[in-house]
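Field reference: sequence -> structure
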Amino acid sequence: MGTKLKDKVAAITGAGRGIGRSEALALAAEGAKVVVNNRTSAKGGTPSDIPVADEVVEEIKKAGGVAVPNYDDVSDPEGAKNIIQTAVDNFGRLDIMVNNAGILMDAQVYKMTDEQWDKIIKVDLYGVFYTCRAAAAIMREQRWGRIINTSSQAGAWGRFGQGNYAAAKEGIVGLTRVMSRELGPRGITCNVIRPRAGTRVSLSPETQAAWEREGRFDFIAQSKMLKSEDVAQFIAYLCTEEAADINGYTFVVGTDGIGLYREPEPPFKMIYSSQGWNLDLLLKVMPTTLADGLVNPAPPKTT
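Structure field:
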């Protein structure tokens, strides 16, 4: 067992499998006491005799670590609050919050139902807000904390058929950036990862179909070789004292590499008018200024 996170207390949502499970194991291996949250009892899409959260807890204990399970739903504000309360009740504090829970319900925007939109936003975005709100209240009093939220490359790439998922995941980026400014003065860092790993989500039929429509066949094959354990090691790093100055940033993380996203910058080109704008003026100046060199990423099909 390592000691880099000795005596720290972590809550990890969606920790019953995939990246969340690897994160729970990694943090526990460095001495953290872990609340393993997973609301379902399905493992790999098939029923399990015991909840998968319990399975991860037992795995941690067998390795010499400390963990307790939690089965609450992040999309319910009281459930999310109870995840944090589970940490306080069992270990007296909360130092690390890792939001990993998420679901997919793919559909093109013009076919998307209210339910498909609402459910994804509720779980993938509201769930992060609910847990962060409860966790931040405790961490502020302790004047120390680490919050890591899981976004996706779906929004950054504009992945076909995942408008609801992309909207939620990009919302996480903005939320985290604001929290980093609000909570940083209290010794709390808030960062985002866009993970690259072979999981039930990244290798789901829906995601693979989206990649195929984009011609990204290489990413399907590549994802099978990307390990969630490597993502988890970077999460462990962000939780250390050594990462105290990393706050408000977004990273892409995978077995094949770790990258830092550029933070939003002022527009690199602007046009000005002392008289305001009208359509005739815009039709005249746009082609040779802001629109010059722009390429339609999805042009109309000719057949």
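Note: Residues 109 and 146 are 35 Å apart (CA to CA).
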